[in-house]
Model the fold of this input.
Amino acid sequence: MKIENPNPIQWQFSERAQGLQSSFIREILKITQRPEIISFAGGLPSPATFPVERMKEAYDRVLTETGKVALQYGPTDGYGPLKEWIANSLSTEGTKILPEQILMVSGSQQALDLIGKVLIDEGSRVLVETPSYLGALQAFSVYRPEFGSVDTDDHGLVPSSIEPVAKGARLLYSLPNFQNPTGRSLSIERRLELVETCARLQLPLIEDDPYGALSYKGEPMPKMVAMNPEGVIYMGSFSKVLTPGIRLGYVCAPLPLVRRLELAKQAADLHTAQLTQMVVYDVVKDGFLDRHIPTIRTLYGNQCQAMLDAMEQHFPKEVSWTRPEGGMFIWVTLPKQIDAMKLLDQAIAARVAFVPGAPFYATNPETHTLRLSFVTVPPERIREGIAILGQLIAAAL
Done:
């Protein structure tokens, strides 16, 4: 039985819900699904790197040997053997990370949301790089903070610029390795200065590290969490080294904080899928990543070089860009009179897509910047797309 012609509900959304905004990148990705589009827009890992057979074998093995455990509810903090594996991978000769410091999450985006829920009140000051990861800005914005921008240069975040904007700040969010969106990395000297500055100011430092393993030279930089495990919140993910479809990440934090994050996660989703965690542990426990990640580095390094070579050939001399040594992104700075948002409309009409830079700024967006991703596009298509983009930029000068 159904009510005839019911009056439509006039929904009364919360102030928080009214302030929600769609991710600009996710909207662009809807357009780039068209096969004719050469897309440099998505921050998506290449499907060519997904270890499909290895994952299939692990699912079969876990379900055959421990299926009733894998399909049951699990603990909020995560699957014990995987937490121990992660803790050991983060530990160094001078710093021991405990499994109790690890919280498994449903992708690092959930980690950002939980951190915001636990540390940010409305009006709280939150420090971010200039520019910063759009997903973090979106996650933190739900809790309506006041953003403070920390200066960056060609070598990444400038630690000496923190103190003037740090008063009353709840946290500083950073991506020290092959940053999204710029591709820049912090030197060891800057990492030490950053950790020391935040410790002196009693400022919690978030070290978001989804790309650290993707160094084309195969030499990962030291982690800041090992420099000060009591003051650094480390975020890691299996999305870029295995597959994003499993939605599995983790947080390493001091025990008082990780307990609060665990309580927030209980309220959000009870726990991350036990089956997924058990499968990932089965995949990684015997050193598989040590054999698998070099193939990702080689693929991405070759495609990055193809894009850099094409840009050198086709972009006008008035344009500058970063030259990353790892990760997935190149950051482009156009002459100031060119609006990247308008350029995007022209590019899509010419069957090329990228992400304008303005959404990556928490304050004072620079509209003459853009981000290019090269990892899902083969070299010949990279060259074709960059040639088209170069022509459009030249025409706009």
User: Anything to note?
Assistant: The two ends are 65 Å apart (CA to CA). The chain has a mean pLDDT of 95. The longest strand covers residues 169-174.
